[in-house]
Design brief:
Oligomer: heterodimer
Number of helices of chain A: 0
Radius of gyration of chain A: 13 Å
Shape of chain A: globular
Number of strands of chain A: 12
Number of strands of chain B: 11
Strand content of chain B: over 45%
Distance between the termini of chain A: 41 Å
Largest sheet of chain A: 6 strands, mixed
Strand content of chain A: over 45%
Number of helices of chain B: 0
Order of helices and strands of chain B: EEEEEEEEEEE
Shape of chain B: globular
Largest interface: A-B, 24 and 27 residues
Largest sheet of chain B: 7 strands, mixed
Helix content of chain B: under 10%
Distance between the termini of chain B: 36 Å
Order of helices and strands of chain A: EEEEEEEEEEEE
C-alpha cells in the first residue's frame, strides 16, 4: 500500500541551527514528492516538489530536499532555521497521474530563540 | 492571482444541522479538490472535480456529504445532519493542466466544529 511516514512528530531546534525533517514513502514506482508547510490554523503552502531529474530540489524560504530512491526518502533540510519557520511540515506523495496526494502525519517544528 | 479562497473560515454548528462550505479556486484552474484534515493528522483526499464533473469520491465521503461545481468554477461542499466526527478542517485545492505531476495549491481551509 502507498504510504508516507514522518517519524518525528515534534522537533525543536535553536534559531540559526540546521534542520532536517525526515520523510519515508512506500510506493511501487517513482512517485511525485512534495513538502508543504502549515502555520497554525492555516492552509498548506507548497515548499518544494520533486517530479524527476536532479534529486536535490530547491524550494522557497531557503529549504531544500533530496530524493534518495535507494532509501525511499525525501528529507527536507534548511541550513539555518529562523523563528518564523516554526510550523507543521507535511510530506506528501502524489502517485504519477493522480491527484490523490497521500500525506504523512506531519512534523511540528518548534524554534527556540 | 488571489489564490484558493474558502468561506467561511470557521463554522460552529450543532449536531444534526447542515453546513455548506464554498471554495473559489485559482482562476482558470480546471481541477478542484476537497481534502479533510483532523487534528494531528495530515489531509485526506475526499473528492475531485475536473471542470464541472465530479470524477472521484473517496470512501470517506459518506452519503451525508455532497459536493458540487456547477459551472466549473467555484465549488460547494455540503454536510447534512452533521455529527461530532465531522469536526475537522476542510481544505479546498486546485490545479491546472491535463497531464501528470500538476501541483496542487491549497486554500486556507474551513474549520468545522460540531457541538
Amino acid at each position: 500500500a502507498q504510504s508516507v511516514t514522518q517519524p518525528d512528530i515534534h522537533i525543536t531546534v535553536s534559531e540559526g541551527a540546521s534542520l532536517e525533517l525526515r520523510c519515508n514513502y512506500s510506493y511501487g514506482a517513482t512517485p511525485y514528492l512534495f513538502w508543504y508547510v502549515q502555520s497554525p490554523g492555516q492552509g498548506l503552502q507548497l515548499l518544494l516538489k520533486y517530479f524527476s531529474g536532479d534529486t536535490l530540489v530547491q524550494g522557497i524560504k531557503g529549504f531544500e530536499a533530496e530524493f534518495k530512491r535507494s532509501q525511499s526518502s525525501f528529507n527536507l533540510r534548511k541550513p539555518s532555521v529562523h523563528w518564523s519557520d516554526a510550523a507543521e511540515y507535511f510530506c506528501a506523495v502524489g502517485p504519477s497521474g493522480t491527484y490523490k496526494y497521500i500525506f504523512g502525519t506531519g512534523t511540528r517544528l518548534k524554534v527556540l530563540a | 492571482d488571489t489564490g484558493v479562497s474558502q468561506n467561511p473560515r470557521h463554522k460552529i454548528t450543532k449536531r444534526g444541522q447542515n453546513v455548506t462550505f464554498r471554495c473559489d479556486p485559482i482562476s482558470e484552474h480546471n481541477r478542484l479538490y476537497w481534502y479533510r484534515q483532523t487534528l494531528g493528522q495530515g489531509p485526506e483526499f475526499l473528492t475531485y472535480f475536473q471542470n464541472e464533473a465530479q470524477l472521484e469520491k473517496s470512501r470517506l465521503l459518506s452519503d451525508r456529504f455532497s459536493a458540487e461545481r456547477p459551472k466549473g468554477s467555484f465549488s460547494t461542499l455540503e454536510i447534512q445532519r452533521t455529527e461530532q466526527g465531522d469536526s475537522a478542517m476542510y481544505l479546498c485545492a486546485s490545479s491546472l493542466g491535463t497531464g501528470t505531476g500538476n501541483t496542487i495549491y491549497f486554500g486556507e481551509g474551513s474549520w468545522l466544529t460540531v457541538v
